[in-house]
Design brief:
Blueprint: H1 2-17, H2 21-32, H3 44-52, E1 60-67, E2 73-79, E3 84-90, H4 98-111, H5 118-127, E4 128-133, H6 138-142, H7 164-176, E5 180-186, E6 192-193, E7 202-205, H8 217-234, E8 241-243, H9 253-260, E9 263-269, H10 279-298, H11 306-310, E10 315-316, E11 320-332, E12 335-350, E13 355-366, E14 372-378, E15 383-386, E16 388-394, H12 402-410, E17 413-418, E18 433-435, E19 453-457, E20 460-466, E21 469-472
Parallel strand pairs: 3-4, 3-5, 5-9, 7-8, 11-14, 11-15, 16-17, 17-18
Antiparallel strand pairs: 1-2, 2-4, 6-10, 7-9, 11-12, 12-13, 15-19, 19-20, 20-21
Bound molecules: zinc ion (ZN).
Length: about 475
């Protein structure tokens, strides 16, 4: 018994000492996080400002290697003196910024002087030459849109190369003869990781290089490295990793990079509950990219099997919604119906693409038992009906006292006309809806609609739905 206990003690302390690299990186992330970047709608000027901190450093070089359609500099950041050329490009789609944030954090990691990671830094800089094109589409980022200033999807221009941004990317790949390519994107929040009740927070692809979807060594290596990254991610977002179908897209960069001889990995950052600004996903990118560099440097990826890549579930589009209200009991023309309602929140921008508010809209109605929501509620014990519009026009909402407002909500009034209000203040996270004097709303359940609904039990209002948020009317936390 004593011997068993002793063995247990020894093995557990051995395990403690063998804390995996990804875990050490995860725990140290805050030491390297770039403080200037705090949300997704940063612009080219912000990235320039971040890079300015590094321009005098001797362990890297920052060169403006090209210009966007509107003349913004596109930078190449290079570090390391190793024989293996690794090329990463982010934000080729302007509204897909998660990896750009992590790449800035990674620069701070290499700038670090702590003892813990000194051996890793030395190893990476000795074995690899890392080349980063952060924010390949700065004009798109300025407008927080997918396409560039010519309104072209740069990821469909790998063959024709009609845009300065795509010509630059091709030129960089060719001049470096990159062994590895990281094609860094964001996908929408609504993919499932297979047909499960997990959403896809990160999705991968080792793109095909021909219609036959053959696997040569170049593509096989990309698959094996994805297996390494997936194993790391499972520790933080278990079952929330997916892979794209590998249908060949002859115009896309990933597919062509693979064809041109660079082992290419597409990484798509998806949604994660309570992480709309993707700061947790930024952290996971930091971990998995540095982990991938290590696996390339020491060749660890070679022992992985492409069958473990094949085993990653497929990315299932439209498998998720923001809010799913199940079994809503709705009456229409004197008859009762049971319906599920799926709601999504659109980001409506203002202040020159730097801010947004969320506006709910109904995406689907009916039997939605096979799809899921970031939030879900069973509404079967309530009777649903449309919220009423109050007949008066108020000068402002501050004229309505909290007590009075609660009474009106209990009487079924959800929607109030106010004299004047800026558009972005129409949809605040408040338990009442606002209308401008001339606006009208039906508050009915229909595709694309954003109705205010009331949910009652025995004739008493219990819950209300306003702008896709469900409020409990008797809950003391109701904030006006
Ligand atoms: Zn993209």
């Amino acid at each position: 018994m004593r011997i068993l206990f002793f063995l247990f003690f020894i093995s557990s302390s051995l395990l403690m000492g063998q804390q995996p690299l990804h875990q050490k990186l995860y725990e140290s992330f805050s030491d390297y996080k770039e403080p200037l970047i705090t949300h997704r709608r940063f612009k080219h000027a912000d990235i320039e400002q971040v890079l300015n901190q590094f321009r005098e450093k001797d362990w890297l070089s920052i060169k403006a290697v090209g210009k966007s359609v509107e003349g913004r500099n596109i930078n190449l950041v290079s570090l390391g003196n190793g024989p293996v050329q690794v090329l990463l490009w982010s934000q080729m789609h302007g509204d897909e910024p998660t990896a750009t944030m992590a790449l800035m954090d990674i620069l701070h990691f290499f700038d670090g002087t702590d003892k813990t990671f000194e051996p890793l830094r030395k190893q990476l800089l000795k074995e690899l030459s890392i080349h980063i094109l952060p924010m390949l589409n700065p004009d798109g980022a300025e407008r927080y849109q997918r396409r560039n200033a010519l309104n072209v999807d740069l990821n469909r221009d790998a063959l024709r190369l009609q845009n300065p941004e795509t010509r630059l990317l091709k030129r960089m790949r060719d001049s470096l003869d990159a062994a590895w390519g990281f094609n860094l994107h964001d996908q929408n929040r609504y993919y499932g990781a297979g047909l499960t009740n997990e959403n896809a927070s990160v999705s991968f692809l080792a793109p095909a290089y021909n219609y036959e979807k053959e696997v040569n060594e170049v593509r096989g290596n990309a698959m094996r490295l994805i297996v390494v990254m997936n194993e790391m991610l499972q520790a933080y977002i278990p079952n929330k990793v997916a892979k794209y179908s590998d249908d060949f897209e002859p115009r896309a960069f990933g597919d062509n990079m693979q064809k041109w001889g660079s082992s290419t990995i597409l990484i798509e950052s998806g949604g994660l509950k309570n992480d709309r600004e993707k700061q947790e996903l930024r952290k996971l990118h930091f971990v998995m990219l540095l982990g991938a560099f290590e696996a390339i440097a020491n060749g660890r990826y070679k022992s992985k099997s492409k069958f473990d890549y094949e085993a990653i579930p497929f990315n299932e589009s439209n498998h998720f919604h923001d809010l799913l209200l199940r079994n809503i009991q709705l009456e229409k023309r004197g008859k009762d119906y049971t319906l599920d309602v799926a709601i999504r929140y659109a980001e409506i921008e203002y202040d020159r693409h730097s801010k947004f508010y969320l506006k709910a809209n109904i995406k689907d109605i009916g039997d939605l038992s096979i799809v899921h929501g970031y939030e879900e509620q069973d509404m079967s014990s309530y009777k649903a009906s449309s919220g009423k519009v109050h007949p008066k026009t108020f000068k402002s909402m501050s004229k309505l006292k909290k007590k009075k407002l609660k009474k009106l909500l209990k009487d079924g009034y959800t929607t109030f006309r106010v004299k004047e209000i800026p558009e972005e203040r129409l949809w605040l996270n408040k338990p009442y809806a606002l209308l401008l004097p001339k606006q009208n709303i039906e508050n009915s359940v229909q595709i694309g609609g954003n109705p205010s609904l009331i949910f009652s039990q025995k004739g008493k209002v219990k819950k209300i739905l306003i702008n896709g948020q469900l409020y409990d009317i008797d809950d003391g936390t109701l904030k006006f």
